User: Which sequence fits this backbone?
């Protein structure tokens, strides 16, 4: 029989990865969580809507989950980045016999590890629009999810940045939390009928290009329009701007391993089955990198499914 350093290596130590590791730990499996320490929600001061944790800082939630996970004797947490993962060939078998992983600890040391199963929970990177003032306000007053942040800005002046023909529906949704302006930022693809419908619903439509976002520190006080192309450079007062960021996997490992990706509305997603196994046997995936809708609760639930799926595959020899 092959021997491995771990039964499962979970790549990513945020909501999805720690949830997957907890299931494997409770099944008494040797599980290693490798985390680079860059969770996607590190820019947000609080996580909202998560069962029993509403309003808690996400980094504090992660730290608490790490402490609870380490109470299980079969768990190892390692800081670093997995730079390569390859399947160990097993002639005549329907699945790889295991995986070779190389860990970079960030200080120049490379450590080889072996594992029976892999769980990819490294999340996604956000691609933000190239507008001055967006990046430094991301997660504070430039937002992506009204269910995560909408209540805190309810009744205030809200904006939606145009990103696709679905932006009219996006603006209509955001308007349920407060008075809303759809900023076209120079886009001309909004249909006249859609513009008329939005105006009838009380949603303002601003066609001019945006020069910058303005406001103290990470707060937002308004959108400065470009003083050219027919615009007058005025400031449109708003308190929060909703942006549909594009996304891409935060690690190239899924492609490196040969996992299939599906194109989602905002970027590629790792394809998984009902047990969260990818198209590569023995490799599981969970969290934002597998979802078209991103939410901490959903990421955690996906992690649970991936951990259970990986464990049951070990039991049944899959």
Assistant:
């Amino acid at each position: 029989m092959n021997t491995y350093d771990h039964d499962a290596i979970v790549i990513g130590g945020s909501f999805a990865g720690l949830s997957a590791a907890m299931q494997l730990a409770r099944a008494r499996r040797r599980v290693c969580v490798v985390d680079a320490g860059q969770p996607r929600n590190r820019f947000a001061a609080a996580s909202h809507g998560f069962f029993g944790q509403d309003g808690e800082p996400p980094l504090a939630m992660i730290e608490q989950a790490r402490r609870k996970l380490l109470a299980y004797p079969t768990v190892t947490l390692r800081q670093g980045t997995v730079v390569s993962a390859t399947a160990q060939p097993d002639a005549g078998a329907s699945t790889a016999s295991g995986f070779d992983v190389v860990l970079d600890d960030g200080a120049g040391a490379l450590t080889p590890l072996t594992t029976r199963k892999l769980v990819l929970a490294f999340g996604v990177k956000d691609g933000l629009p190239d507008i001055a003032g967006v990046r430094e306000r991301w997660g504070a007053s430039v937002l992506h999810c009204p269910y995560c942040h909408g209540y805190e800005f309810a009744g205030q002046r809200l904006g939606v940045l145009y990103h696709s023909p679905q932006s009219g529906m996006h603006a209509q949704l955001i308007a349920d939390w407060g008075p809303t302006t759809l900023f076209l930022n120079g886009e001309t693809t909004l249909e006249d009928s859609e513009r008329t419908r939005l105006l009838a619903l009380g949603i303002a439509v601003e066609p001019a290009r945006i020069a910058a976002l303005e406001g103290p520190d990470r707060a937002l006080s308004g959108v400065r329009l470009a003083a050219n192309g027919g615009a007058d450079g005025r400031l449109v007062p708003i308190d929060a701007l909703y942006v549909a960021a594009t996304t891409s996997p935060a690690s190239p490992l899924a492609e490196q391993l040969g996992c299939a990706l599906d194109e989602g509305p905002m970027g590629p997603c790792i394809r998984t089955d009902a047990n969260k196994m990818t198209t590569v046997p023995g490799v599981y995936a969970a969290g934002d990198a597998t979802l078209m809708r991103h939410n901490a609760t959903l990421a955690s639930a996906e992690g649970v499914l991936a951990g259970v799926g990986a464990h049951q595959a070990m039991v049944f020899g899959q």
Observations:
- The longest strand covers residues 110-120.
- The two ends are 15 Å apart (CA to CA).
- The chain has a mean pLDDT of 93.
